[in-house]
Specification:
CATH topology of the largest domain: Rossmann fold
Radius of gyration: 22 Å
Number of strands: 12
CATH superfamily of the largest domain: Response regulator
Distance between the termini: 73 Å
Structural class: alpha/beta
Length: 353
């Protein structure tokens, strides 16, 4: 009897191990392999590349999967970096950033058995582009790109809240955005910020400069200093390492700053004394949740959008500035949050490409 019970226990344990293991193995039977291809900002950009990798790392720990990243040094690296993961038999490839849209679409069509996820591109390319050589329909995630999930964020919503805070804290009545490349995710941040600032305090002056790079903190700092010279006393850095230069300019001038994508109080401690908050896109959570769905075999092609309502975007804690932000301004931010969620506040995105 004892031997029978022991044998039964072994069988149960083996079955349990098999079922558990199935959740983290590839179709070929090996461990699930996940590759992350960063944009040119690199994996330590203190912003969304870093956050995306953090999401992969958490999934590696929780789901017992293998993961690695490749940094793109220039835009011409995108396709070859994806190819490297593909030839090394990775099951999932995550690409980071709007600019990787064409490369991701082209490679997703080339490697239909690999699951792809891309951050900040929802695939509506024009007919005849590199990503769309056949018809427009072939480029939609529910058309030709059946192996791609787009992880999108309503940057305008959290940008609006950042604008409310900036205008409420500004002493000069002028706030500014020190922006990276003029692409839709950055534009949504800027447009939301500007409209939030004017909503909070009509007549607020909003300055903005787009810089054609995400990897030029020196230019970001120079540009921010120019806007500071025009009266800006709250700088919103919206451009990866380029925007980080703007945060540094604000810190050195003893002014206020707002970080972007992640809680930069934690990732960029050199400027934390200036940071009143950060406009966060929870990229790490989005990536982690996507990988969890892959492990559980519930992932779907198409667009997943992070909003204020589902907690995918939001302001970071005020940290050292918490006691310096008036209660009525905090209440106004909550009013704006509620208004965006219930639709009584509508952000005009007609200017976004």
């Amino acid at each position: 009897m004892t031997r029978k019970i022991s044998l039964m226990m072994v069988i149960v344990l083996l079955a349990t191990a098999f079922i558990t293991g199935c959740a983290t193995t590839s179709s070929s039977g090996g461990k699930l392999k996940v590759g992350l291809v960063t944009d040119t900002g690199g994996v330590n950009d203190k912003s969304f590349n870093q956050s995306a990798w953090a999401g992969v790392q958490k999934a590696m720990k929780d789901f017992n999967i293998d993961g690695n990243y490749i940094e793109s040094k220039q835009t011409t690296d995108y396709e070859k970096n994806i190819d490297q993961f593909a030839t090394e038999n990775y099951n999932v490839i995550i690409t980071v950033g709007f600019l990787m849209g064409d490369a991701t679409a082209a490679k997703a069509k080339q490697y239909p058995n690999i699951k792809f996820a891309i951050i900040d591109n929802s695939y509506f390319p024009t007919k005849g582009s590199v990503a769309c050589p056949d018809t427009v329909k072939d480029c939609y995630s529910d058309g030709g790109l059946k192996n791609v999930t787009s992880l999108m964020f309503e940057e305008d919503q959290v940008g609006f809240l950042a604008g409310v805070l900036a205008a409420g804290m500004s002493k000069t009545g002028t706030v500014c955005t020190d922006s990276g490349m003029q692409i839709p995710p950055v534009e949504r941040y800027v447009v939301g910020f500007q409209q939030g600032a004017v909503w909070e305090k009509p007549g607020t002056k909003t300055l903005n400069v787009y810089i054609p790079s995400f990897t030029d903190p020196a230019k970001g700092k120079e540009t921010a200093l120019s806007m500071i010279g025009q009266g800006c006393d709250v700088v919103f850095g919206v451009g990866g390492n380029t925007g980080n230069g703007g945060l540094l300019a604000a810190q050195e001038k003893g002014l206020m700053a707002i970080g972007v994508d992640v809680d930069q109080y934690l990732t960029y401690p050199e400027v934390k004394s200036a940071l009143i908050t950060s406009a966060m896109k929870n990229v790490d959570t989005a990536v982690y949740d996507y990988l969890k769905s892959v492990v559980n075999k519930t992932d779907k092609a198409g667009v997943l959008t992070a909003t204020l309502t589902n907690g995918g975007v939001g302001l970071a804690p005020f940290h050292d500035w918490d006691s310096k932000i008036p209660a009525d301004l905090k209440a106004k931010i909550q009013t704006a949050t509620d208004g965006i969620k219930n639709g009584t506040i509508k952000i005009d995105l007609s200017s976004v490409k």
